[in-house]
C-alpha cells in the first residue's frame, strides 16, 4: 500500500486531459508523467495538466522506475501494443475503451497481465458512475420487473476528416468502437450476452463504419437494439422497457447524469447526478484501491466482462461486414 501512486498518461490527447482532471481529485494519485511520440506535445500536455515529467518516447516513458500505473488513451489500434509494452515493464494499466480491436488481442493482454500478476483494467466509464449505480439499485429492487427490451444509442456529428482516428480504418476508426461500445455495455450489463446478433452498417469514404444498428436477441424472447452514428446527433442514452414500467438512463448535453423512472401506476421520478470531473476520478480510485488490496483486476470491471464485451463487438462487426485489415 502506498501513500501516493505515480500515474503516467500515454497519449497526449483530449481524452487524456479529461482523465487528468479526475486524477487531480483522486486522493492518492500523483500526476507524474506523460508519454507521447512527440516530445513537444508531451511537454505542452505536462505543463497544461500539471504533470512532472514528459517523454517523447513510449519506451522511455514505460521504463521509468518511479512510474506505478499507466493510463492509456492512444487510438484503439494502438491499445494492444501499448498495453503489452506497459505490462512487460511491470506497470499496472488502465486502458481506455475499446480495449483493443478484437477478442484475440484482448485474450493476449489478459494472459500477459495474469501470468505476470500485474493489474489490468479497461477504462469503462459507465459502471463507476452514480447513474449506473442507481439503475442497478432500481433493477435489484424488483420494482420494474423483468427487462423485456433495451434500446440503447449514442451518436454525434464530428467533422469528417479521413485522417482522424474516428474515420481512419488503420486507427480502428468507426462509430462502433468509439461510441457504439456504450450501448453494448448497457445490454451486457443489464441483460447479459445475447444469443443472436444481426447488424447492418453504412460506411464512410475511408471504409470505416459511420453508422451501425444491431438487433441483439435472447433465446428466452428478450431483445435489445443498439445504434451508434457519426451522422446524427442523438446524444447518449438507454431505455429499459420492463414488465412493470420503464427506466431511461442518460448523460445529458449538460453532462449531468439522469435516471428517469416510470413505474406503472406511480408516475415518473427523475434522479440527477453531477459528479466532479465527470466521475473519471472513480476509475482511478478503483485502480488504486485494487493495488492497495493486492488485487490484479477490478470487481467493478473484471477482465471477464471486458472479454465478453469485445467478443460481442466482434460479433456485431462481423455481422455488419466491418473489417480491420490485418487485425481480424
Folded structure, characterized:
This protein has 328 residues and is of the alpha/beta class. It has two domains: 5-124 and 279-297, NAD(P)-binding Rossmann-like Domain (Rossmann fold, 3-Layer(aba) Sandwich); 127-277 and 310-320, Dihydrodipicolinate Reductase, domain 2. Helix content is 34%, strand content 28%. The strands form two sheets. The chain has an eight-stranded mixed sheet, covered by helices on one side. It starts with a strand and ends in an 8-residue tail after the last helix.
The secondary structure category is alpha/beta
The whole-angstrom Rg is 20 Å
Mean of all residue-level pLDDT scores:
97
Arrangement of strands in the largest sheet: 8-9-10-7-11-12-13-14
Any low-confidence stretches, pLDDT <50, length ≥5? none
Through-space gap between termini: 40 Å
Could you tell me the number of beta strands? 14
- The sequence of SSEs as H and E is EHEHEHEHEHEHEHEEEEEEEHH
Dominant shape: globular
TL;DR of this structure?
The chain is an alpha/beta fold. 34% of the residues lie in helices and 28% in strands.
Task: Jot down its keywords.
six-stranded parallel sheet, 28% strand, eight-stranded mixed sheet, Rossmann fold, 2 domains, 9 helices, alpha/beta, 328 residues, Dihydrodipicolinate Reductase, domain 2
Layout of strands and helices, then pairs:
Elements: E1 5-10, H1 14-25, E2 29-35, H2 39-49, E3 53-55, H3 58-63, E4 69-72, H4 79-88, E5 92-96, H5 103-115, E6 120-123, H6 130-141, E7 147-155, H7 175-190, E8 196-203, E9 209-217, E10 223-229, E11 235-242, E12 245-251, E13 257-263, E14 267-273, H8 280-292, H9 303-320
Parallel strand pairs: 1-2, 1-4, 2-3, 4-5, 5-6, 7-10
Antiparallel strand pairs: 7-11, 8-9, 9-10, 11-12, 12-13, 13-14
Helix pairs in contact: 1-8, 4-5, 5-9, 7-9
